[in-house]
Design a protein that fits this description.
binds zinc ion
Length: 141
Amino acid sequence: MQKMTGFNCTRLPGGVYLVFQRFADEGAISRSWSLSGRGAPKLSLSVLVQTRDEYYGPPGNRPPGLWKRVLRAVAKSNGRTTSYYCPDLPPSRSGIALAVPRYLATLRWDGRRWNQKVTEHLKRPCPTCTAAGWRQAEDAT
Ligand SMILES: [Zn+2]
């Protein structure tokens, strides 16, 4: 189970907010920093650190040829990434991921046009968005 173990929100000049979140579970800790402002693109950096046991499996019970699997996982998880927000919206939230064993860093940005599409979509959210609890920012107080 993932638990939020840290949160900090800093207001920067120009109405820009820097939000820090830290999540932890038994095998991994993730930290994320995101920068957002009114009408500005949102930028976020997240870093995931996994324990040795979580990444390689329990000691003494690690599968043979593990280095090949690790190498494949590293090759696969580096490069450009896109994430899906909702099936009705294009997957245009993009980013770059950098992975080495046990560490994964992801830099993401949400474009202004994409943010506007989301805002428009959330005025009449589809069942998926409603079920996920996504609402317009103004209503989410
Ligand atoms: Zn939707």
